[in-house]
Design a protein that fits this description.
33% of the residues lie in helices and 34% in strands. It has 251 residues and is of the alpha+beta class. The protein folds into two domains: 4-102, Aspartate Aminotransferase, domain 1; 122-249, Roll (Nuclear Transport Factor 2, Chain: A). Helix 5 packs antiparallel against helix 6.
């Protein structure tokens, strides 16, 4: 029979995972995105799972799996009775849930998987794509020194109607924009790369950006197009797939 201690051991071994206690409920997150959450009595474990496959999962083994609460039906989420599964099943559920919230490359590198079709190993990435990844890592770590080394007279074009929208010119203005981003989102903003490609002049990053606003998690897929020169970021254009959600997230 699986236990919360066993889940904890597996989850905390996975990159970028941290544990949180929210209203007496144990949760495991990557950034602000929860991928495992226990009931208060620790008998049930919610886990990230494709919602379009959820009904089939529950129907296949109703003694193990149940539907989430009504308020969670809109999310990629399912629930398992922890006492009904063994450690092998638990490990599979935990790892698959974690895969859903981290970039494919992070999962592939940790688990030793072959890269997904069309995704080249990191060693073959263009140097500008690697430079962007270093910038994203420095942003997440709030490493101002590293960010300064990777960009200087940068210009960012931020869409929308909120307080962060507009043109940001220069490194100092960008660092101030980062500060305001933390304030507007109460420090909940997250950035995850889905894929990054680059050439001698441009980088395109497919990312998932998110924040918690009024207790509701908002995530927006964003395509970012960059101009690079001599390995340094010069200009960035954000193209969120849902501008209304983008405005809610950054307002």
């Amino acid at each position: 029979m699986a236990t919360i201690e066993g889940v904890r051991g597996v989850a905390l071994s996975l990159p970028r995972t941290h544990e949180a206690l929210v209203r007496d409920r144990v949760k495991f997150r990557v950034g602000q995105i929860v991928y495992l959450a226990f009931s208060r009595d620790e008998a049930l474990m919610g886990f990230a799972f494709p919602k379009e496959e959820r009904e089939a999962l529950v129907a296949s083994e109703p003694d193990k799996f149940i539907m989430p609460e009504l308020s969670d039906l809109r999310y990629n989420w399912a629930v398992v009775r922890l006492g009904a599964i063994d450690d092998v099943e638990m490990r599979e559920i935990v790892i698959d849930a974690w895969r859903m919230v981290v970039p494919k490359r992070v999962a592939a590198e940790h688990l030793g998987d072959d890269p997904p079709p069309g995704l080249h190993p990191r060693v073959e990435e263009h140097p500008n794509a690697r430079a962007y990844r270093r910038t994203a890592d420095a942003f997440r770590a709030q490493d101002v020194e590293a960010l300064g080394d990777l960009m200087d007279d940068v210009v960012w074009h931020v869409p929308g109607t909120g307080p962060l929208a507009g043109e940001v010119r220069g490194r100092d203005a960008l660092f101030d924009w980062f500060r305001r981003l933390r304030e507007v989102t109460d420090g909940t903003f997250t950035l995850q790369e889905h894929d990054v490609v680059g050439n001698d002049e441009h980088v395109v990053a497919l990312s998932l950006m998110g924040a918690v606003r009024d207790g509701i998690a908002i995530t927006v897929p964003v395509i970012s197009v960059f101009h690079y020169r001599n390995g340094r970021q010069q200009e960035r254009w954000f193209h969120p797939t849902d501008l209304a959600a983008w405005d809610r997230m950054l307002s």
